[in-house]
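Record now logged underneath.
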Amino acid sequence: MMKQNREYRAMDFVQADEDTYEVKGYASTFDPYVLFSEDGIDYSEQIDPHAFDDADLTDVVFRVDHEGPVYARTSAGTVSLFTDDHGLGHTTDLSRTARAKELFDEIKAGNYPKMSFAFTVAEDHYDRDTHTRIIDRIAKVFDISPVSFPANPGTELTVSTRDYFNGVIEAERAERLAAEERQKQIQRMRMKLKMEDFNGNQGNED
């Protein structure tokens, strides 16, 4: 069962090498991505290029759908993680056991079209101009997992992430309504002044 304080993001397989039983790809990229849209606004997320600098990557496991048996792990030397200009990459060796080789064959056959990685956030902030959550620091990466049904970020965000954006959306909506009300008050005041000026001019003519 997925932990509610953990967050999950989908990623693509880049390469599955039949000769070495290696799966290579990126657990995360540093490009912004849209999570969902509401009120005509795209709400996005971006992981800072230095977010993984102090992250706990000591024992990241490779499993299916974030649960069940472990097929590889960093502590066993079968999952290797690295960061570059593009993101957090991985090379996973599925050659050590018969079960791991069977999973590789399933991946190669296309039965797991995407991967997902589980992590917790240590620090983030919100860019109001671009409506983007910036993840400044990742606390820990727990696993990288091939998934049978990739989550749609717009409908299957974790509770913590959805709560975060619900708070942002409510605050921005309240600010927009307040700004609209202020504008209406200004317009009403201008109309009142125009009417007073008009009535005053009419009185002077009389």
Summary: Confidence is low (pLDDT under 50) at residues 152-156. The chain has two helices and ten strands. The first strand starts at residue 7 and ends at 17.
